[in-house]
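Hi U.,

Before I forget, here's the chain from the pilot set. I'm dumping it here mostly so it's searchable later in email.
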Amino acid sequence: MKFLFTLLLPVFLAAFVAVSLAPAARADDIYTIVVKKNEDKHKYGFWLSDWIETRDKMRLMDLWLALHSPSPYEFYLQGDYQFPKSGNNFFHVSGAAFASIFGLAAERDFSATPETLATFQLRVFGFHDQGTNLTVFGGLNMRDQTGFSTEPVGGAAMTVYLTRFFGVEGTFRRHFNTGNRYDVSPFIDFKALRVFGSYVGTNRVGEASGVAFGTRLYF
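Structure:
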């Protein structure tokens, strides 16, 4: 009898362990089949409420980009006082309007021989005028000297920002009847207001080199 009990004891222990572990195995199977599959449905399913939430987020992003993107339209007005090496000092005004890379500009000298310049501008590098850019232009210069006369003009202007608020602007103009003119203008930007000084060099007939100081307002 003792021998039979010793022989059957391992069998009873194995059966007891199997019965004890069976509920846990069945519980794990139920979790895998029911709960986990349901979670996967929610993870990869399409829900109208999720689409509405995503749409609203994209609208907010589009609004933020519209508020923080630079406008394609840009305008400025400029006034400066010029001190030529010979002749009288005089006041000079100018202005420009840009739509994307295209612009129209005009300027006027209130000197002893008044001049008016009107040009079409084309920006070939850069996003806007108040930033690093390269712009070419062409137009007509009208001069009141011993009668009214006009001449074609062409040239280029380049602005380079050395820091966020400080830079240098250079302009070259070819007056096809009277000669060339160039200026170099270091400047400081106080947000929309630019303060600058210029050296003006010229070999044009009836015009002298000199310096100028002025301001430009962007809006």
